[in-house]
Amino acid sequence: MATSSARSSSDDLDALLDHLIQHALEQVEKEGDFHPFAAAIDSGGELRMVGMEPENEEPSPQEIVDQLVASLAASAERGEIRASGVCANVTLPGPEGDSEAVVVQLEHRDDDPVDIALPYEAHDDHLHTGELVAGLGTRRVFG
Q1: Rounded to whole angstroms, what are the CA distances from 19 to 16, 22, 84, 86?
Q2: Which residues are CB-contacts of 11 (< 8 A; sequence separation ≥ 6)?
Q3: pTM exceeds 0.85
């Protein structure tokens, strides 16, 4: 049986994606929204949430993302992590109007970065999700 430290880069990214999407959707169901957050796979293969101290009392979502990326990049430079994911709630423009989506920016030290969006609609007590959409991301953590 393979240990968690022997996982492939795609296994690491899948684990991060599953964890981040699940946490984001739980927050949408409970609160209707969520602030950006992050997780990483450390060098030993363990998934951990990544926190940050805001630089001001009410940071914008972009400021939170930038601070999370900076924290993850510092950890990557020290060799403490091998994969990272940053998750944010965004509004996507579309032909039939704007829609909300959970967007996850995934990076691995040994693979290309990937951006994934999961559109959703929250109605009353129900949350309906659309299809996952993936595309090549931008390397910001493992530069």
Answers
A1: 5, 5, 12, 11
A2: none
A3: yes
Taking the C-alpha atoms of residue 79 and residue 16, their distance in angstroms, rounded to an integer, is 18
AA letter at 92: L
How many angstroms separate the first and last alpha carbons of the chain? 32
Tens place of pLDDT per residue across the chain (143 aa): 334 456 799 999 999 999 999 999 999 999 888 999 999 999 999 999 998 776 778 899 999 999 999 999 999 999 999 999 999 999 988 888 888 999 999 999 999 999 999 999 988 778 999 999 999 999 999 98
Q: How far apart are CA 58 and CA 82, in angstroms?
A: 30
In this structure, the chain runs to a length of 143
Tokens of 131: 């299809």
DSSP 51: -
